């Protein structure tokens, strides 16, 4: 994929990443995006920052204005991890995020992938899968900054951009702090804590 195409992809992503609802929310911080490329497109780093910004906006809106609103109104419809098997329930923010990432992953024209991972996964599928993901999750847990790196998977090079996934609503950390899958050393999260990381992977070849 040429760098020029990232410009078009960014526009498409911003238009279509309504599906980018995620775990709990947060905003991109730390390093600024790179400059536009000489070809007139945007850099892979800036593309990753752009799609991440859309993801954060959507998941924060869902968490604050859907999940929290239902809870505050004591609505008969509630968010539940087991929403597929229970009546009057809706998916958790993290589940919304994962379903969106799965759709993008299946789209060969999307040109990128994303996922929500954590150093403290309540679900094994949210555990770091590569050495760079482990390094990135350690970094964002200890620094108020984004992580950017490059890795090679299956013979292809990728930009790996990782952003802190912070608790932006009580529903976020209440769910994690009271989950039955918590290990003995699981952190006690509070508002603003980094609970995981959003990983955006963009091909460089």
TrEMBL record:
Key words, A-Z: Signal
Domain of life where this protein originates: Bacteria
Organism, scientific name: Blastopirellula sediminis
The protein's name: DUF3365 domain-containing protein
InterPro entries, sorted: Tll0287-like_dom
Domain Tll0287-like, first and last residues per copy: 48-203
Signal sequence residues: 1-22
């Amino acid at each position: 994929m040429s760098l020029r195409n990232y410009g078009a992809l960014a526009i498409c992503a911003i238009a279509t990443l309504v599906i980018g609802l995620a775990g709990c929310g947060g905003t991109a911080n730390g390093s600024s995006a790179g400059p536009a490329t000489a070809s007139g497109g945007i850099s892979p780093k800036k593309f990753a920052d752009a799609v991440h910004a859309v993801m954060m906006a959507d998941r924060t809106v869902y968490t604050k204005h859907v999940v929290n609103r239902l809870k505050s109104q004591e609505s008969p419809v509630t968010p539940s991890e087991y929403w597929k098997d229970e009546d009057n329930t809706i998916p958790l923010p993290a589940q919304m995020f994962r379903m969106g990432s799965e759709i993008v992953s299946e789209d060969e024209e999307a040109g990128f992938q994303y996922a929500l991972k954590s150093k403290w996964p309540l679900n094994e599928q949210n555990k770091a899968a590569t050495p760079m993901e482990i390094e990135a999750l350690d970094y964002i847990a200890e620094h108020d900054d984004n992580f950017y790196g490059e890795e090679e998977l299956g013979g292809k090079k990728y930009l790996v951009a990782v952003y802190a996934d912070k608790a932006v609503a009580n529903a976020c950390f209440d769910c994690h702090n009271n989950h039955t899958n918590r290990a003995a050393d699981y952190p006690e999260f509070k508002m603003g804590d980094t609970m995981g990381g959003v990983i955006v992977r963009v091909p460089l070849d």
